């Protein structure tokens, strides 16, 4: 109480408390953090701030390098730079918004690179890494683009429960974005079987074409399954129209790769009859009844 200014109070409150006679008599040790003992001019704190600034400057230069390689279409070089960035991100403070923005932008570019490379495993990893950043930053220039690509991936892999779970997390503004409405409308068309519109869809960005191509293959397989059960034979021209192939050569390639049991005769496709399933007469009902009665009789004897 008799200390009137800071000069007359040369120790910190923590040191003052730890030196109280009552505490010393009880042998109580007060653990004083180093930065608290040293006050606001803690050397370690200053070093951490400088290191954080240097880390941000270094990653910013790597981010610019990543952007340049992405714009140049250098997928291999871009993925190498992204790996360096991810290592640098390990030193990022968890509560620094500038660092989070750098990390989010790097991962967004990384996601676009994996789409261009067709690496779905890396795509899923990058999406998982960026979700915590989106939860904090709320929005970024590419957020809706990335959300739309993730929805397309879930749709192509037929993970519809996860698809609808992701929709529940969207804000009204995000749900109205073109990149997000595209997979939503596509899913609705698939659910009602409007395959013609799915096969002739126009993508909002070239990065969506990779997923649409995979989805087209799934749709064509579904149409082919229906065709071979519904018809004994069909003209090649009609099959081209129904399955949205641009040329007969594309249709024949599809048949060779995916439908080797289809027979091509001149301008006609002949389909093999589907294997018949088991009938009721194939079930040995009398034998099963006899066994059940035998088991019941034996159980009654035991009781």
Description:
The protein is an all-alpha fold and 303 residues long. It has helices spanning 13-18, 21-25, 34-37, 43-71, 75-89, 97-117, 120-137, 143-156, 160-168, 172-175, 178-192, 195-199, 209-230, 236-243, 248-258, 285-302, and strands at residues 233-235, 263-265, 268-270. It contains 16 helices and three strands. The protein has a three-stranded antiparallel β-sheet with strand order 1-3-2.
Average pLDDT rating: 81
In spatial order, strands of the major sheet run 1-3-2
Distance between the termini: 91 Å
Element order: H for helix, E for strand:
HHHHHHHHHHHHHEHHEEH
Beta-strand percentage range: under 5%
Q: Please state the overall shape, judged from the principal axes of the Cα atoms.
A: extended
Count of strand segments: 3
For the sheet with most strands, the description reads:
3 strands, antiparallel
Uncertain stretches: 1-9, 43-51
Structural class, by secondary structure, is mainly alpha
User: Helical percent range?
Assistant: 55-70%
Structural Rg: 33 Å
Number of helices: 16
Summarize the structure.
Helix content is 67%, strand content 3%. The chain is built from 16 helices and 3 strands.
Keywords:
3-stranded antiparallel β-sheet; 16 helices; 3 strands; single chain; disordered N terminus; 303 residues; mainly alpha
Write the SSE topology.
Blueprint: H1 13-18, H2 21-25, H3 34-37, H4 43-71, H5 75-89, H6 97-117, H7 120-137, H8 143-156, H9 160-168, H10 172-175, H11 178-192, H12 195-199, H13 209-230, E1 233-235, H14 236-243, H15 248-258, E2 263-265, E3 268-270, H16 285-302
Antiparallel strand pairs: 1-3, 2-3
Helix pairs in contact: 4-5, 4-6, 5-6, 6-7, 7-8, 8-11, 8-13
């Amino acid at each position: 109480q008799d200390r009137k200014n800071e000069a007359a109070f040369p120790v910190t409150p923590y040191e003052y408390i730890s030196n109280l006679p009552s505490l010393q008599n009880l042998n109580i040790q007060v653990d004083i953090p180093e930065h608290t003992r040293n006050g606001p001019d803690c050397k370690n704190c200053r070093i951490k701030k400088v290191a954080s600034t240097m880390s941000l400057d270094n990653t910013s230069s790597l981010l610019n390098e990543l952007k340049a390689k992405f714009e140049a279409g250098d997928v291999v070089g871009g993925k190498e730079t992204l790996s360096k960035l991810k290592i640098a991100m390990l030193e990022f403070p968890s509560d620094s918004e500038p660092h989070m923005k750098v990390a989010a932008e790097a991962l967004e570019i990384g996601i676009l690179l994996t789409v261009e490379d067709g690496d779905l495993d890396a795509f899923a990893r990058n999406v998982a890494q960026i979700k915590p950043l989106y939860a904090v930053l709320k929005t970024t220039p590419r957020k809706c683009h990335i959300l739309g690509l993730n929805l397309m991936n879930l749709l192509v892999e037929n993970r519809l429960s996860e698809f609808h779970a992701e929709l529940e997390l969207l804000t009204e503004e995000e749900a109205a974005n073109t990149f997000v409405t595209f997979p939503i409308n596509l899913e609705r068309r698939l659910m009602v079987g409007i395959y013609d519109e799915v096969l002739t869809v126009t993508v909002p960005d070239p990065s969506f074409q990779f997923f649409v191509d995979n989805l087209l293959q799934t749709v064509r397989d579904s149409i082919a399954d229906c065709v071979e059960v519904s018809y004994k034979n069909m003209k090649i021209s009609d099959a081209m129209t129904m399955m949205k192939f641009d040329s007969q050569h594309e249709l024949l390639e599809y048949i060779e790769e995916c439908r080797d049991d289809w027979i091509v005769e001149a301008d006609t496709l002949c389909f093999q009859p589907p294997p018949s399933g088991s009938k009721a007469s194939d079930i040995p009902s009398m034998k099963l009844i006899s066994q059940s009665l035998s088991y019941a009789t034996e159980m009654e004897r035991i009781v």
